[in-house]
Amino acid sequence: MIELEGVAFGWPDAPPLWSGLSLRIAAGEKLVLLGANGGGKSTLLQLLDALVFPRAGSYRYAGETVTPARARRTDWARRFRREVGLLFQHPETMLFNPTVRDEIGYGPRRLGLADAEARIADWAARLRIAHLLDKPPFLLSGGEKQRLALACVLVMEPRLLLLDEPLAHLDPRTARWLLDWLAQSPATVITSTHQLASAPQLGRRALVLAGGGLAYDGPLDEALADTALLARADLA
Ligand SMILES: Nc1ncnc2c1ncn2[C@@H]1O[C@H](COP(=O)(O)OP(=O)(O)OP(=O)(O)O)[C@@H](O)[C@H]1O
């Protein structure tokens, strides 16, 4: 489903974050993305969401190379946005509608989904924010905003789900709900986290970013037992 081949990326006027990054992810895999502060986890998730593009190398999604030109094509972008969802690290950055209802409905309505209103009600109930539907998102608490941001992503029922620190701000009940939901979801899921204790519930395969590249790609339990690797990635 995802193929990165020799990918290099750096933000403008900044040194490369990584180069020569290659990996393959099959449909339905669940991966945990680990790494130090500033190691590039959020950036990698943004690249996989086609918000930024490789400086060198290639990113193929479902067999097609993801390029700025392709992302500008309305038909391709609609299909990609229908299939790929990114939960941003800071929920505020993705909330811009006047009400919680409009926020959850933004994606489904924009893509013209016939069941948009039913989806809004369903996901608001699942995330326990149905009582907030008519409120402006900026009035919500930190955890309520995180639940809303999750609803906005999950309402699209994406095939590829990119979650940037999803457990931050969540109360234990909602965190448990999310972990249980992810465990039964057929979606491909890549989750970045610093919470090593929860990592085994997020996936069996780990990607560790450190030292300007992918320092590890393999079983999560082996990564968690590798003290040298954890130290190199500032994880221990
Ligand atoms: N939009 C941006 N423009 C310019 N530089 C950026 C931007 N976003 C991130 N960076 C820089 O890229 C580097 C990697 O940041 P990124 O947020 O991807 O790391 P991270 O691994 O997610 O970190 P953390 O664990 O602290 O959330 C940092 O040096 C950061 O300052």
From TrEMBL:
Residues 2-236 form the ABC transporter domain. Keywords: ATP-binding, Cell membrane, Membrane, Nucleotide-binding, Transport. It holds the Pfam family ABC_tran. InterPro entries: AAA+_ATPase, ABC_transporter-like_ATP-bd, ABC_transporter-like_CS, ABC_transpr_CbiO/EcfA_su, ECF_ABC_transporter_ATP-bd, P-loop_NTPase. Gene3D superfamilies: P-loop containing nucleotide triphosphate hydrolases. Belongs to the ABC transporter superfamily. This is Cobalt ABC transporter. It comes from Pseudorhodoferax aquiterrae. The lineage of its organism: Bacteria, Pseudomonadati, Pseudomonadota, Betaproteobacteria, Burkholderiales.
